[in-house]
Specification:
Length: about 325
């Protein structure tokens, strides 16, 4: 068992591993670097949106990709579907190695972008014809889902609300009966009831077996009992990766009375410490949780607490990126 404290690792090969067998993998990303042109200064050097990113999406699980705004989530997802080129690294999706010659979503995968971009004059019917001309497409399922969510089949896309546009994109993706569903911020434009209904729908999809979901989201509270695996990225790099339950066994949330040393952040066992009022909270590895001072409370962290403290440790607020928080990647290598 690794100690789950921030450590320096020069390459993925040097990170702790406890795996024995390699399960099926839907998506594998290794040392991915993506450079994008500067939007503000056209002649400036390209910006590294993703830097030596590593992540694994096991088949049959729901994996959440989370991070602060600008961390590289959307860039990483768009690279996986062939929409963006990359400078270095390897991307494999459903057994297909993506590359410069591969510019389409691999067969068996569906992608829903954070801002679906369809021609304003197209209707849902026109979109269905476009999909059906190139891939297997369940028109009945598409029509029924749109009807259930109040999206007119004949209204131009330009006259749909943002929530209706998201439902249109989701309906088109699900009508292809995907083995891998990649969703970029699917809950962002939905109302609370629609979010709950989508979670239930995705659970039903997973119950069919041999299905995999990879989604980026900021809705961490809603993911508490929904996701199986967590990948946290900061500044284009992976800073935490693992099965949610395994991470919650390796890392505990510590809460204790504020100490003078907390202001200096000198305790190397604390991960992403923060002080509010008279209380300091942080993540701490189970192996480091012995001999703590009186008044210390330990409990299993929520998903949102895992994410926020690891991002704080990684300097996601604009400071220099720290080393990854390392935990065993159980059943993922």
């Amino acid at each position: 068992m690794s100690t789950a404290r921030p450590e320096q690792h020069d390459s993925p090969e040097n990170r702790p591993r406890t795996d024995v067998r390699e399960p099926p993998v839907a998506v594998r990303v290794e040392e991915l670097t993506v450079e994008l042109p500067s939007q503000e200064r056209p002649y400036a050097a390209p910006l590294q949106a993703v830097r030596e990113l590593d992540l694994t999406v096991p088949t049959g699980q729901i994996t959440a990709l989370v991070g602060a705004n600008g961390a590289g989530k959307t860039t990483a997802l768009r690279t996986m579907i062939g929409a963006l080129p990359w400078s270095r690294g390897k991307v494999e999706v459903l057994g297909t190695e993506m590359g410069p010659a591969r510019v389409a979503v691999p067969e068996g995968a569906s992608f829903v972008p954070d801002s679906p971009d369809y021609p304003d004059r197209w209707t849902a019917r026109r979109l269905a014809r476009a999909h059906g001309a190139t891939t297997p497409f369940d028109q009945g399922r598409f029509d029924a889902r749109l009807s259930a969510h109040g999206v007119p089949l004949d209204r131009p896309v330009g006259r749909l609300s943002r929530g209706q546009l998201t439902q249109l994109a989701l309906s088109a993706a699900l009508a292809r009966d995907p083995r891998l569903l990649i969703l970029d911020e699917p809950f962002a434009r939905l109302d609370p009831l629609a979010r709950t209904e989508l979670v239930d729908e995705l659970r039903d999809l997973m119950a069919l077996g041999d299905r995999t979901i990879l989604l980026s989201t900021h809705d961490l509270e809603g993911m508490e009992r929904f996701v199986d695996r967590l990948v946290v990225i900061a500044d284009g790099r992976t800073v935490l990766e693992g099965d949610v339950e395994a991470l919650r066994e390796e890392l505990l949330l510590l809460e204790r009375p504020r100490q003078a040393s907390d202001e200096r952040d000198t305790d190397p066992s604390l991960i992403g410490p923060t002080t509010s009022g008279d209380t300091t909270s942080a993540l701490i590895a189970v192996d480091d949780a012995a001999g703590l001072p009186p008044g210390t409370v330990l409990r299993r962290p929520a998903v949102s607490e895992l994410v926020t403290h690891c991002l704080r440790a990684a300097g996601a607020s604009g400071h220099e990126t720290a080393a990854p928080v390392t935990t065993p990647r159980r059943g993922a290598e």
